[in-house]
Amino acid sequence: MSMACQKCQQQLPLPAQSKLFRCHCGNLIPLGNSDRSLPVQEHGRFSSKMRRFRDKIRINSSRTNSLSHSPSTSPRLSLIFTKPPPSGKRALLCGVSYKNEKSRLRGTLHDVNGMRTLLVQKFSFSEESILILAEEAAYKSPTRRNILEAFKWLMTDLKSGDSLVFYFSGHGLRQPDFIEDELDGFDETICPLDFRTEGMILDNAINDILVKPLTPGVTLHAIIDSCHSGTTLDLPWVYNRDRKSWDDNRPPSRTNKGTSGGRAFGFSACRDNQLAADTSAFSPEKMMMGAMTYTFIKALSENANITYQELLDYMHNEIEKVNKARCPLLKVFQRKIDQEPVLSSSEKFDTNTKFKL
Question: Which helix (H) or strand (E) holds 154?
Answer without folding.
Answer: helix 144-155
